[in-house]
């Protein structure tokens, strides 16, 4: 049994020496392989960093584009809303003229004057038509005075026509 144990110890020592020699021979090759891998990884790291910067810049451009689209959509919604307000003012002035035709001159004057705020604000919203819209303030005041004075012959047709013309030009 002693001999068997000695034989196993000798065989283990020989195997250990062989493995040490083999690994020692492979070490320079492994080191060279690791160096090659490290050299090839560096350009890849740079490319990944550059692509990261590019992706970040593209993301910023995409965010800016989304914001611009959202802003345009909000502006278009505001424009449509302001056109509805102007259309409502046209209806109010038309209703006031109907009240005038029915002989309800005081109510007609009050209804006519109530449209002034919407018309004025439309001038704020539509700068290119501001002069035309604000130019209606005096004729509206004068017509309301006539109606309150009992002049049922004075009509709101010129004011309505001007409002419709402005609305039509803005709706195109």
Task: Provide the descriptors you would attach to this structure in a database record.
single chain, 172 residues, mainly alpha, 88% helix, 0% strand
Describe the structure.
The protein has 172 residues and is mainly alpha-helical. 88% of the residues lie in helices and 0% in strands. The chain has a domain of 89 residues. The protein has six helices and no strands. Helix 1 packs antiparallel against helix 2, helix 1 packs antiparallel against helix 6 and helix 2 runs antiparallel to helix 5. The longest helix has 100 residues.
Q: Strand share of the residues? A: under 5%
Report the helical percentage.
over 70%
Rg (C-alpha, Å): 44 Å
Ends apart, CA distance between termini: 110 Å
The low-pLDDT segments are: none
Q: Which descriptor suits the 3D outline?
A: rod-shaped
- Total beta strands: 0
**Main beta sheet strand tally, sense and closure:** none
Helix-strand category: mainly alpha
H/E topology pattern: HHHHHH
Count, helices: 6
């Amino acid at each position: 049994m002693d001999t068997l144990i000695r034989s196993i110890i000798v065989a283990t020592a020989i195997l250990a020496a062989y493995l040490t020699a083999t690994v020692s021979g492979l070490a320079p090759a492994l080191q060279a392989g690791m160096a090659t891998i490290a050299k090839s990884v560096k350009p890849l790291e740079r490319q990944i960093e550059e692509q990261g910067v590019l992706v970040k810049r593209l993301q910023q451009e995409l965010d800016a584009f989304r914001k611009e689209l959202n802003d345009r959509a909000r502006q278009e919604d505001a424009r449509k809303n302001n056109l509805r307000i102007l259309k409502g003012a046209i209806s109010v002035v038309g209703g006031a003229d109907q009240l005038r035709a029915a002989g309800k001159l005081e109510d007609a004057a009050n209804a006519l004057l109530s449209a002034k705020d919407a018309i004025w604000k439309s001038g704020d919203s539509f700068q290119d038509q501001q002069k035309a819209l604000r130019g209606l303030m005096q004729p509206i005041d004068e017509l309301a005075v006539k109606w309150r004075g009992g002049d049922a012959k004075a009509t709101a047709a010129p004011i309505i026509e001007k409002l419709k013309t402005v609305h039509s030009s803005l709706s195109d």
